[in-house]
């Protein structure tokens, strides 16, 4: 997970490791199940080394990460402010798939329509999972909003596949 | 004799539908074989003009094939008389269309009870059944509304209730969300999930991926023929994290 995400989730107040994980779980819902606790703590260690967070050991002196309290340093606060203001958007790699179809057709490696069919199957499986997970979420949950975004995105990808299918069908019948 | 449970609700063999002749010949449905088991939800997807609506019409006895067979619960329906076919369409098959096809001058409950009345049920039994069905699709409070007073999503739910009026063996839906916005699509989607859960056999022809994703099985159609088939049950649970880049 991106370091800035973990950093920003700590911005509200000094936070125990276990509180941070609860916050992420609430925001992500079932999607957060894929998140591994060890990975979050590795990120925290990196942030500490970079001087973006300060760590207080717990009163009982244990070294368990979830008992430690994490606070943003002034550098950390500045990094969060920059990240919030940044315009970024995850890029789906459409060019790779597009070039795969072109290369497959040009070199006779595979039928582009078969590649489209295979991709559609995979996306439909994902759409089914995302949709079912979304329907099982309580109303107004944070995770439901995220799942809605995923469903919309998969729909857009599937529509593009439809366009690919149409286009490659034409090319085949035209040749 | 094989057990009744082994007989597919719908079976097509070598099903063909052709229009025109010689150079103008169009094979709208080209040698399709299909088995739909009891309780199964099957989505048929494909670009417009691929023949999927024509196929649905052949399966539902709305149109006659140029060749091949269709069996409903083991009984051939492609070669039976017009009267017997009309009877079968009323009692054994439920249809849901993109444009709803409700009778505009009848209220919601009157639309829903109509197939039961035509099938010879008593007015009282037909009304009771229609009211139950409207409750099932979440429209008990709209029973006395005319279709014109309902939203698109509500109209489609009335149409689904009507399709269930005579407890059909199979419900055939042709682009059921084609005229609906996103929120109304979600309503219809949940309704279909509910039907599926109750064991209703469903065949949905669509190019809406959301509705196709609720099916057990998805079939892709191109140029009148099946070109791909996938079972969606089983899913990819555990890979959801990949959707948002949480996994390394």
Topology of helices and strands:
The complex is a heterodimer of chains A (175) and B (248).
Chain A: H1 3-9, E1 15-16, H2 17-28, H3 37-49, E2 53-56, E3 69-72, H4 74-85, H5 94-107, H6 112-136, H7 142-174
Antiparallel strand pairs in A: 1-3, 2-3
Chain B: E1 10-19, E2 26-36, E3 41-45, H1 52-59, E4 67-72, E5 75-76, H2 82-91, E6 93-97, H3 108-118, H4 123-136, H5 152-163, E7 170-174, H6 182-197, E8 201-206, H7 209-212, E9 217-222, E10 225-231
Parallel strand pairs in B: 3-8, 3-9, 6-7, 7-8
Antiparallel strand pairs in B: 1-2, 1-4, 4-5, 9-10
Helix pairs in contact in B: 3-4, 3-5, 4-5, 5-6
Q: In CATH terms, what is the architecture of the largest domain in chain A?
A: Orthogonal Bundle
Mean pLDDT of chain A: 87
Oligomer: heterodimer
How do the strands of the widest beta sheet of chain A line up side by side? 1-3-2
Ranges of chain A where pLDDT stays below 50 over 5 or more residues in a row are none
Cα gyration radius of chain A (Å): 22 Å
Give the class of chain B from helix and strand content and strand pairing: alpha/beta
Question: Biggest β-sheet of chain A: count, sense, barrel?
Answer: 3 strands, antiparallel
Order of helices and strands of chain B: EEEHEEHEHHHEHEHEE
**H/E series of chain A:** HEHHEEHHHH
Brief synopsis:
The complex is a heterodimer of chains A (175) and B (248). Chain A is mainly alpha-helical and 175 residues long.
Describe the structure.
Chain B: It comes from Planobispora rosea. Chain B: Keywords: ATP-binding, Nucleotide-binding, Transport. Chain B: GO terms for molecular function: ATP binding; ATP hydrolysis activity; transmembrane transporter activity. Chain B: InterPro entries: AAA+_ATPase (IPR003593), ABC_transporter-like_ATP-bd (IPR003439), ABC_transporter-like_CS (IPR017871), ABC_transpr_LolD-like (IPR015854), MacB-like_ATP-bd (IPR017911), P-loop_NTPase (IPR027417). Chain B: This is ABC transporter ATP-binding protein. The complex is a heterodimer of chains A (175) and B (248). Chain A has seven helices and three strands; from the N terminus they run H-E-H-H-E-E-H-H-H-H. Chain A is mainly alpha-helical and 175 residues long. Chain A folds into two domains: 3-85, Winged helix-like DNA-binding domain superfamily/Winged helix DNA-binding domain (Arc Repressor Mutant, subunit A); 94-174. Chain A is elongated, with a radius of gyration of 22 Å. The N and C termini of chain A lie far apart (47 Å). The model of chain A has no long low-confidence stretch (mean pLDDT 87). Chain B is of the alpha/beta class and 248 residues long. Chain B has helices spanning 52-59, 82-91, 108-118, 123-136, 152-163, 182-197, 209-212, and strands at 10-19, 26-36, 41-45, 67-72, 75-76, 93-97, 170-174, 201-206, 217-222, 225-231. In chain B, a hairpin with a 2-residue loop joins strand 4 (67-72) and strand 5 (75-76). In chain B, helix 3 runs parallel beside helix 5. The relative contact order of chain B is 0.17. Chain A binds chain B through residues 1, 28, 30-35, 39, 90, 113, 117, 120-121, 123-133, 135, 146, 150-151, 154-155, 158-159, 162, 165-166, 169, and chain B through 47, 189-190, 193, 207, 209-210, 212-214, 218, 220, 222-223, 227-228, 230, 232, 235-248.
């Amino acid at each position: 997970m991106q370091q800035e995400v973990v950093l920003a989730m700590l911005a509200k107040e000094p936070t125990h490791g276990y509180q941070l994980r609860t916050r992420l779980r609430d925001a992500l819902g079932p999607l957060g199940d894929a998140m591994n606790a060890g990975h979050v703590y590795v990120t925290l260690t990196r942030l500490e080394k970079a001087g973006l967070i300060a760590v207080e050991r717990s009163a009982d002196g244990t070294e368990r990460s979830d008992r430690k309290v994490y606070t943003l340093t002034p550098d950390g606060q500045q990094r969060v402010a920059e990240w919030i203001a940044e315009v970024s958007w995850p890029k789906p790699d459409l060019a790779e798939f597009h070039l795969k179809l072109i290369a497959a057709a040009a070199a006779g490696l595979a039928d582009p329509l078969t590649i489209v069919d295979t991709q559609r199957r995979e996306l439909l499986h994902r759409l089914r999972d995302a949709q079912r997970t979304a329907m099982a979420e309580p109303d107004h949950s944070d995770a439901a909003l995220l799942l809605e975004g995923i469903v919309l995105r998969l729909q857009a990808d599937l529509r593009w596949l439809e366009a690919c299918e149409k286009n490659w069908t034409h090319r085949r019948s035209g040749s | 004799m094989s057990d009744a449970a082994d007989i597919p609700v719908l079976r097509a063999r070598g099903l063909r539908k052709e229009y025109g002749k010689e150079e103008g010949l169009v094979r709208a449905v080209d040698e399709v074989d299909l088995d739909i088991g009891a309780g199964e939800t099957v989505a048929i997807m494909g670009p417009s003009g691929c023949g999927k609506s024509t196929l649905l019409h052949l399966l539902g006895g709305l149109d006659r094939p140029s060749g091949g067979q269709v069996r409903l619960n083991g009984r051939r329906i492609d070669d039976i008389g017009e009267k017997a076919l009309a009877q079968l369409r009323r009692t054994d098959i439920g249809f849901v269309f993109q444009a709803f096809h409700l009778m505009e001058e009848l209220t919601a409950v009157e639309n829903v009870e109509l197939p039961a009345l035509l099938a010879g049920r008593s007015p009282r039994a037909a009304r009771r059944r229609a009211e139950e069905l409207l409750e099932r699709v979440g429209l008990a409070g709209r029973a006395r509304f005319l279709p014109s007073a309902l939203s698109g999503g509500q109209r489609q739910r009335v149409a689904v209730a009507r399709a269930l009026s005579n407890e059909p063996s199979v419900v055939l839906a042709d682009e059921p969300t084609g005229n609906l916005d996103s929120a109304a699509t979600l309503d219809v989607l949940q309704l279909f999930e509910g039907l599926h859960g109750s064991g209703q056999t469903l065949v949905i022809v669509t190019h809406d991926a959301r509705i196709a994703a609720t099916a057990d099985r998805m079939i892709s159609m191109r140029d009148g023929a099946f070109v791909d088939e996938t079972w969606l049950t089983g899913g990819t649970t555990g890979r959801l994290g990949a959707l948002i880049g949480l996994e390394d």
